[in-house]
Structures are given as C-alpha cells and as structure tokens.
Amino acid sequence: MKIILLSEALANRIAAGEVVERPASVVKELVENGLDAGAKEISVRVEGSGVSLIHVSDDGEGISREDLPLALERHSTSKVKEEADLFRISTLGFRGEALPSIGSVSRLEIVSRARGEEAGYRLRVEGGKRGEPLPAGCPVGTTVEVRDLFFNTPARRKFLKSPATELGHVCDVVNRMAVAFPVVHFRLYHGERLLCDHVPTLQLEDRLRQVLGSEIAGSMVSFTWNRGEIRISGLLSAAPNSFSNSRYLLTYVNHRFVRDRILTHALMEGYETLLMKGRYPAAVLYLELPLEEVDVNVHPSKYEVRFRRQSEVHDAVVEAVRDGLRREAKEPAPRAIVKDERAFVGVRENPLPYAVPSFIRREFQFARPGSVESETKPGEVENGFYSSLEVLGQILGCYLVCVSSQGLVLIDQHAAHERVAFERMRHQLDCGKLERQNLLIPQTLELPLHEASLLEQNLGALSQLGFSVEGFGPNTFAIESVPALLPAGDYRDVLRGMVMELAHVEGSTELKQNLEERLMTIACHSVIRANRKLSKEEIQALLRDLDQIDFATQCPHGRPVLIQFSEEQLERMFKRA
Ligand code: ADP
Ligand code: MG
C-alpha cells in the first residue's frame, strides 16, 4: 500500500459528500453566504428542482477581483482568521469549503462586484477545474449559478428523491432562513413560478404569517425571556391548537437554524401536560447566548451545535416556554382551530452587516412584550378570566355554558376538575408538603400475587405520594392514609390503578420521573366524573379554582378545558359575516 496526498479536486469532491447532499444543501450554503455578506435581498431560482439549475443572487458586499479565485479554493474564508475565532463564530459560514465543494460536483459560475468597485468579475468552475476571472457588468453583490448538480457523481444523483420532495427541501431551507432574518427580502422561484415572496418586516409575527400561513401563525403567541446572558424568545402555539407531527418546530441558536435534541426536548417539556399524547406544538424558538457558549463547528452541514452549559440551556428553555404558556393560559383568547392536515405554505415544513445576536433585540418589536416578573401568584387573582364569566347553566351533565366579554365559552367540568386537582397536587409535591388524610377504618386490598409483590417493592414511593399502605396478610394490604386531595370514597380502585402504573417502571430515577404521570392518574381518579349536576356554588368555586391555578386551559392529558367562540366566529357560523 502506498500513501498519496489527494489532489485538491479529489479532496473537494470528498468534502462535497458531506456538505452537498442535495440541491437544498447548495441553496442553504449560497443563501448563508448572502446573509453573511449583509444582503438585504436574496433571490433564489431553481429549475428541475435544483438539479438543472440553482441561481442565487444577493445584494451583499460582493467579492473583489483578487478574492474571487480564493473564494473557490478550499479552506479559504474571510470569516475566520485564527483558532480563537472558532470559539466565537458570528457568521453562518466559517469552514471555507462550501463553494469549492459545490464547484467540484457541478458547473458553477460566480459573478460578483464588490461595493465601491467600478466593475464586476465572473469566474467559472466545472467539476473542480477553475478558469480565470473575466470582467462582467453587474450590480454590487454576488450571483452564483450552479448547473447540472452531480453531473460527475452519478451515484449521488441516484440518491435524490422525487423532484417534488427535493423542491420541498429547497422551500424548507428558504423558509427557515426567512424566519431567522425577517428583515431580509427572500424570493424563491421554481422556473418562472414564484413560490415564496417574503417581504421584509420588523415583526416576527408577519414573517411567520408569510412562511406558515396566517392560520397557524395566527394561533401563536409571542414570548420573551431573559436570564443572565441567555435570551429566549419566539412564538408558541397555544390552546386549543396542536399538530400531529413536529414539522412546525423551528429552533434557532444565534440566528442559525439548528436541529438539536436538547432544544426540542426542552421545548416539548415546556408544553408538558398541555398536549395530548402524540401531538406537537407549532413553535419558533430563538435562543441567543454569547458566541463562546456555543460550538457550531460540529458537522459540515452546520445543523448541529453543542452548548457549553447544556443543562442550563435546557432548563432555561423549559422555563421560558412554560412561562410564556402560563401567561397565555391566564387570559385564553378565542382562537380559530387550525386544521392539521395543512401543508407548509410553499411546501412543508442583518440586513445590516449583521453583527448577529443583538440585532433582533434592537429591531424587533414583539406584539405583546412580556415581562419575566409579571407572574400572578396563586391566591392573588382578583377577577380572573374564569371568575368573570357569566354562567348560563350546565348542559348534558358535563358542560358549563358561559358568556365572556368576547363571546361564548363552553367548559368541560371534568377536564377542569382534573386540571385543578393536578395543579394542587403538583404544588403540594413541589413544596414537599403532601397533605394526607388518615382513614378511620383502613381499607383492605387483596391483589394477585405478582401485583402484590410490585406493590410491596414500591411502598416507599407510594408513601411519598401520600399513600400509607401496610402488609396485612398474604397478598393483602391495608390502606391507612391517602392524599388529602382525594375525596372520600373507596381507595382500592385508585391503588389498583397505581399498581398497574408501577408495572411499567424500572429503577428509582424513572420512578421519580414518573411521579407526575402518577399525579395525573391520581388527579383523574379523584375528580368528579362527568354526569353530575353541579350546584351554583360548586360552579363558582370551580371557576375560582381555575383562576388560581396554572394552565387552566387544558386537562393534564392535554384535552381542552374550554372552547371559545368569539362574536366574529359565531357570526361566520350563522353566515352573517
Ligand atoms: P465560508 O462561507 O465558510 O467562508 P464559502 O466557501 O461558502 O466559505 O465562501 C468562501 C468565501 O467566499 C467567504 O468567506 C466569502 O468571503 C466569500 N463569499 C462567498 N459567497 C459570497 C457572497 N454571496 N457575497 C460575498 N462574499 C462571498
Ligand atoms: Mg459559506
């Protein structure tokens, strides 16, 4: 075996394998370059889903004649100079390999005129072979044209999906960038057809309307949250809307769209009991933190990041999301219910020389800026949303019919009771003060052998939840106390339910993690089932309780507590509007 040094062309081709997976990756790299150059307008045109042609032009600062050949050389970049720069990357690009990689698997032409220069220049590369810069008439900015992608790597070409899918990826790329840079004008054409025209705006809400459509964007609420050097902001879908998959989750770190497990996990944890199983929110999350806190040099595609303080970031996101949702749930607004089947508009899913992280802070105005300290403490509610409702009555044994200042409100009393019980229980657990009630006459429970041994092993955990249970003979137990929140009655069924849950848990940490799920079970077992007539006083008490707790818009399984119809919605239903 003989070791040889690979030619530059071959090395580029290898790098291209990682950076240029499909037409959309080319679009991503070229648009990133435009944004890094401070463009205010970026126009993308593709033909044949990007395989025959990708044409990206920007009005950024351009490239000078001397730099033009360098731009196409491997490891040449204007964005990083020394090693230390790698730990505070403020641009989207930094690896200096996108253009040479693309040039090695296509026929590429770059035409650019640097700001302040009289003329522009064009330079061609074909399958990695570079020509000489020639004068060209063009405005300030850069245009890159990529033809016949993968013409010299047929294997790669075979891996491409259907034209519609590839075009979908291109749209996704443009849409995601557009959400990160609302002040930049983005256009996307497929042939002559205009697929996206995202006009510049200072409002994230407006940009999101352009990208996701007003139905989904209109169902979202904005939030901002700061702690120390971490700033989190964005938009979250609020009750009653949720979606059957995660394609409307967009997460950004310092204006870079990323796919990050930590962020997604934290976001979902923030929603916690507000979503039904298998449902996802629509959410745009901007995380901004000091450059040196994030490592973006993880993968050539730059979709991944690493956080220096991972768990801190995670917890901050959970808190920020919870906070935003909690505030929203205090004054639930009538909201159109979004039909889930809808696809991404287009397809699924600093205009300044941008000194990144701070620019949104300066230029953005959020529709409803929230202050972090503005939480209402339990017990302080004067006249909350629920207490101010006028109750007309109870129908079908389980719904309360009410009138609000905005229209009609229907409340599922069972779901409402569940959330109240759940939040009370959670509150008691959080303060470590779970009240219990001793039973005058212990109730005895007999279990099948395997369930009995499960219970036996978990008496400690159950005790933490307020159940004192003792052995009382073979496979038989005496229930001596239960959580005080449970109404009087037969607790054997409750405990049987708990044992069933125990069967699925292994290890004490998991047991602890499942405390909350257990809580839900208890809450559900404890509350008044539907089909019970409530007295006027009971209804008033329930409404007051709802005002005192968090997340009163959904039961702990994510089902809605209330459904509202605004006057406008009612008029539409009656064809008056
Ligand atoms: P990177 O973006 O990682 O630096 P690229 O290969 O994408 O690497 O680009 C190489 C260099 O070419 C950039 O650092 C930049 O100086 C220049 N360049 C590329 N595209 C543009 C553009 N659209 N406008 C201005 N300069 C550009
Ligand atoms: Mg680049």
Descriptive tags:
577 residues; alpha+beta; 9-stranded mixed sheet; 5-stranded mixed sheet; 19 helices; 23 strands; elongated; binds adenosine-5'-diphosphate; binds magnesium ion
Strand content: 15-25%
Largest sheet: 9 strands, mixed
| Helix content range | 25-40%
Radius of gyration: 29 Å
| Separation of the first and last Cα atoms | 80 Å
Low-confidence stretches: 341-381
Tertiary shape? elongated
Which class of secondary structure composition applies to the elements? alpha+beta
The averaged pLDDT comes out at 86
Number of helices: 19
Number of strands: 23
Ligand kinds: adenosine-5'-diphosphate, magnesium ion
Describe this structure in words.
It contains 19 helices and 23 strands. Helix 2 packs parallel to helix 6 and helix 6 packs antiparallel against helix 7. Strands 1, 2, 3, 4, 5, 6, 7, 8 and 9 form a nine-stranded mixed sheet that branches. With 577 residues, it is an alpha+beta fold. Helix content is 33%, strand content 23%. Adenosine-5'-diphosphate binds next to helix 2 and helix 4.
